[in-house]
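Hey,

The postdoc asked me to send both predictions to you directly instead of through the lab channel. I've kept everything plain text so nothing gets mangled by the mail client. Protein one:
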Amino acid sequence: MKRSLWELVAALGIPLKPEWQRIEISGITEDSRCIRPGYLFVAIRGYVDDGHRYVGEAIARGASGIIVDAQRGTDSQIFPVPCIRLKNTRRGLAKIASAFWGHPTTGLFTVGVTGTNGKTTVCHLVGHLLGERETALITTIANEKHKLRAITTPSSPLIQEIAYDALVAGQKHLVIEVSSASLPLHRVDAVDFDAAVFTNLTHDHLDFHGDRESYLEAKLMLFRGLKRAAWAIVNVDDPAAERVLGETRSRPFTFAMDRGADLQAADIRYERNRTTFSLRWEGRTAATTLRLPGEHNVANALAAASVGIQQGLSLQAIAERLACARNVEGRYQRFRARNGVTIIVDFAHSPDSLERMLEAVRPFHTRIICVFGCPGQSDREKRPLMGEISGRLADLTILTTDNPKTEDPERIIDEIEAGLAPTGGRYERFADRREAIRKAVKRALPDDVVLIAGKGHETYQIVGHEFMPYSDVAFLREEDLVESGTSVVD
């Protein structure tokens, strides 16, 4: 794939220079380490580092052109390759990446899913409903195949490349998990969304956004940017729904369990390992059984079903396909321990998601043993909140580590404990996550459930600046703590 620099810069709507027509660009990146001869380097000012420090390195590696921030004091500098100066290089990167790959999202039914909780599950359910062979996914889990760890929404060049590959492969749909950070960072600026889904808004990521209002404002960017013909699919059970619907010019479609909406769930019956309910839309009803227990998964199913409706699926077809949907890796993933105890591994890493998981398993087990920690260098406010929730809802909490990064794990646990201790709930501390899980399983009785929360699908523990190999699921199997065979308890 090659494009002229003229063609790419034209996407920015700035004055062009004739000589740019003769310069071929064979790739685009904001990472100087990935530069190859013929690449265009876009310097991004990050929160930890500044790409402008590496302009010289990019040129030395063979960059055929560079894009820099006009505010970074580079006006007087002379470079041996074409230099384009922009007010916002992140926006420029998104537009140029889309142009380089031929604006691929215009040829796909493209869905963006945002919200605090449920994004990954909704994305994978949408892929299941629309056809997994015909649908490309960009999600926390799907990104692993691109060797991306701890990233929900990748950089704009990779998003456009994945979309292009999907088109070439004959796929028809693209579903993107859109994080709150990716929106102000302009990673999805040039994506042509046909639908956007809002799941919910609860406490999380305040370390990045500062406060809840700024967090919501970031989410609203997705809906403000929708074209008129797109669909704004919104969970009206959530208090933020009115704001979301009021900020978009696109066509609204609502779903709910408790309020009036275009698509509703009725006759809901929660069981240990499944949920049965009916979908209701435009006077029609279709019953389904979801192998994903819990109230939150009914909401996730409604969100996915809403997308299916916009793509012309009948209510009956949606119900039938939901009934055969598989568990998403690391989301409510169930195991049976050697002593008969049920073990659930889940990604629940926010106060709301942890509370929902504990409430979902409570009716079916005598006791709950909850194992969790909180990440380092991230939202400290949620630590005591999650401690309070587990202290109140679990019978025993075992506090441990979860990607401590450069923070002292014991100090992180101290902050969780500050919220847990006043509840009077029983708890223990084991900074070693492996030891915490061993203790939890050992203390559990046959009718108990051990909820291992926070890491879900992750296959690493971030310690310092290193990604150390680790997986809750792999550890359970390696230690022979669970029965062999399928992970799901039927």
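Protein two:
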Amino acid sequence: MTLTTPVQERYTRFSCPNPQCAQFNRPGEGNIAHRSWTGTHKHIERLRCTACDREFSEREGTLMARSRLPEDTVIQLVKCQRWGVCDEGTADICAVDLKTVHRLQQVAAQRAETHHRQVVREVDVPGVQLDEAHSKLRPHQVAWIHTALAMGSWFLLWVDVGPRTQEQAAVMLAQVVARVRELPLFLTDGWKAYSAALLQVLGIVYRRRRRGRVGRKPKPRLVAPKHLFYAQVVKVRNQRGQVVEVDTRVVFGGPRRFMKQLRLRQLGTTIQTAFMERWYGTLRSLVAPRRRRRCLSWSRVRHRGRLWLMVSLYNLVMPHKSLRQGRTRRTPAMAIGLTDHVWSYREYVWLPVHADRVRRQQMDEQIEHLLTPALQGYPEGSPPANLARTETRREKAKPILKAA
């Protein structure tokens, strides 16, 4: 077989991996050209960036990077992970060593999280459901899976594995607020930590006036802004743990205003968390450690890696039945506007992902700013006069969020 130089249209999916280049992480700019062929059988293509003259392999940033496995074997390994096959079963089906499966999980999970951090920004999300699920690890450990899911599109905005604390709930909310274009409507279960976490991330300072001339000034406190809408679905259980009643309550926004926003955003007419319950049903069926006791993860890192790989495939590769439009199948990424087609397994394996440290640092700084309460560090009494998030009784200033 005679190797020829491919056409230029083939290089539209590649981008320059040099962080110092002006075309870094910008595919489809026409700056990638063919350089040479390498490898034992001359089957690996070397590319060159015409902007900075950087040479790199076509496998850099993909699941084929630094791997001697054939392409079909890597695709088969990803398919086994997608359908929830255990590690030993995946190694047996694909005829590889168990360490190869663990290495693929580690590389694919890190790549999936990096791609999600860089792509999911400024998305339009009308409503978000948040919840946490109990998960077991070996030996005799417990981990909670925290998830934020976009209503209507079934897109998973963020997932994390950590303790069931208010700090973890605030981190989830900060991740959601930093990645959406406008503040969405929030729906959760009856866990009280979400209310305090919302005030920590989005709360504004309310400074009540002193009624008389004598006495101490009232202490400032955090209140919810007017454009924050949050409701809870509370499940009442009996002594056996069975659900006997489901109650709903609006925490922020008022019942009438909340229901009006629910209808205006086309999210239904009832307060419910059915999207999240359906996602956890999918998670239990497709992630082996969530349903099989002999397949439990030995570490939180590996457990988190399996979860992130599943989230990436769920958003990009797996079409959802409720998102179908006629005969056109759609994935959550298509419904939210991040892509225009259903990704194939080969396209997912060959997707080049290059870590952008500058954008990662900017996002981390924004999240850190959101996690800092407005009242933190102020002495007892009245906060400074130039405080941005302040609201008084006489002059109610327009609330200003921490997020830019």
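Summary for protein two, as requested: Residues 1-7, 377-404 have pLDDT under 50 and may be disordered.

Thanks,
C.
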